[in-house]
């Protein structure tokens, strides 16, 4: 009985060591689809684009803003997600 227990412990130890040495696979971050400029212009003409300016207020003061862009500073994106449409392509500045 003792021999079976020792053998079982050895198998468990080897299995645990093998799993510990296997690197964990982290999922790849989501990638935005790449678009050709003609496709972007077509979406703009259809009104299917949301222009998002993620710069901070100080940057807007220094550099100005773009007509039609909605400013949501990058640090506030998570809190203000409801303001960003889900049915449009998003172009950021």
Task: Describe the model.
The radius of gyration is 26 Å and the shape is globular. By secondary structure, it is of the alpha/beta class. Strand 1, helix 3 and strand 2 form a beta-alpha-beta unit. The N terminus is likely disordered. The relative contact order is 0.14. It starts with a helix and ends with a strand.
Quick take:
With 93 residues, this protein is of the alpha/beta class.
Low-pLDDT windows of residues: 1-16
Classify the helix fraction into a percent range: 25-40%
Average pLDDT score: 78
What fold name goes in the CATH topology slot of the domain at 35-93?
A: Oxidized Rhodanese, domain 1
Topology readout:
Layout: H1 2-21, H2 37-46, E1 49-53, H3 57-63, E2 70-71, E3 89-92
Parallel strand pairs: 1-2, 1-3
State the main characteristics.
93 residues, alpha/beta, Oxidized Rhodanese, domain 1, three-stranded parallel β-sheet, 3 helices, 40% helix
């Amino acid at each position: 009985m003792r021999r079976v227990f020792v053998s079982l412990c050895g198998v468990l130890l080897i299995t645990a060591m093998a799993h510990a040495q296997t690197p964990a696979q982290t999922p790849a971050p989501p990638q935005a689809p790449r678009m050709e400029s003609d496709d972007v212009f077509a979406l703009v003409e259809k009104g299917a684009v949301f222009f998002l300016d993620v710069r901070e207020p100080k940057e807007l003061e220094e550099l100005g803003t773009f007509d039609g862009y909605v400013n949501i500073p990058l640090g506030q994106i998570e809190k203000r997600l409801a303001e960003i449409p889900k049915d449009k392509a998003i172009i950021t500045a």
